[in-house]
């Protein structure tokens, strides 16, 4: 298995600017669903939540941090010349599509079971993306591990909300 060593040199100003652009882009795409669906709806407020449901403020903080890590990871893979780069970028795009689809499925359609199906597919795509990123840049793969952990927690949370309110 060959892993790119491109990251052993320090990035220049243009490269850092590009990295910031990737971080902003991933945060923007990740935030898009919030413009159409919201946890502030009367439907969501009326749902019974499990005891381990985090405080509302945790979600924007965690997602901003995770999307920032994803943006850096994406930048590391994008700037690589490794042969596996194309497949890794494709998997990243697919998992982002499912990430973005979860909010409308859960909040917009008010269908926690459908959203649970979306998040299960998302989990599999994130795991595959980590494996693909590892073939390109191990640091990029490592940056996705907290995201997979959060998706795991979110899936358990989603399942429990569905169970409590079915």
TrEMBL record:
It comes from the Archaea. It comes from Halosolutus amylolyticus. The chain crosses the membrane at residues 16-37, 57-77, 89-107, 113-133, 140-159. One of its GO terms (cellular component) is membrane. It is a multi-pass membrane protein. Keywords: Membrane, Transmembrane, Transmembrane helix. InterPro entries: TspO/MBR-related_sf, TspO_MBR. The keyword Repressor does not apply. It is found in: Membrane. This is TspO/MBR family protein. Its main location: membrane. The lineage of its organism: Archaea, Methanobacteriati, Methanobacteriota, Stenosarchaea group, Halobacteria. GO terms for biological process: tetrapyrrole metabolic process. Pfam families: TspO_MBR. Belongs to the TspO/BZRP family.
